[in-house]
Amino acid sequence: MKLHLGSQPASNVRRSCDERGSRLNQLVTDHEALQRLHQQLTREYDSLVKEQNHLKGDHKTLKLEHKDMKERQNNMSASEDDLLKLREVLELEMSKLKSDSNTLANLRNEHSRLKDDFRSLFSANEKLRTEYKSLQGDYKSIKTENNTVKLRLTELSGS
Fold first, then answer.
1. Rounded to an integer, what is the distance from CA 153 to the centroid of its chain?
2. Does residue 3 surpass a pLDDT of 70?
3. Cα separation of 37 and 7, whole Å?
4. What pLDDT digit, counting tens, does each position of 65-90 carry?
5. Whole-angstrom Cα distance, residue 102 to residue 109?
6. How does pLDDT run across 116-138, given as a tens digit for each residue?
7. pTM score > 0.70 for this model?
8. Which residues contact 5 (CB under 8 A, 6 or more apart)?
9. Containing domain of residue 81, as a range?
10. 13 close to 5: Cβ distance less than 8 angstroms
11. Is residue 32, in this structure, part of any structural domain at all?
12. In the chain, how many domains are there?
């Protein structure tokens, strides 16, 4: 830098030097502020990079968890479908069992009625058998009497 002191008065030179000194101090202050800002931004950047790496790991973990959960959901959906099918089968079986239970009750009633009918028929049969035996006895005695009467008639006719 060249200074031309001869043409300017001393107060101007001093003012110019003061202005330059003031500008220099301002530039140094600005430089220091920029260095502090640079350091702060560098720390923040490093912190953000660490956070990004951490988030990348979390993202990867979450993707794996999501995949696992999707598989579990599919398995649960399949299990739910299986359970619904089993429920339908069980409901069908229950309706069959109810029907069978009703049929069994009807069969028991029918069996009871048939037993009563059988007892009635058995007792009527016993009466008929007793009456038949009685009639057989009557028949034998009437036949014997008839034979005796025939024999007597023959004797009376022949003599």
1. 103
2. no
3. 43
4. 999 999 999 988 888 899 999 999 99
5. 11
6. 999 999 999 999 999 999 999 99
7. no
8. 13
9. 8-115
10. yes
11. yes
12. 1
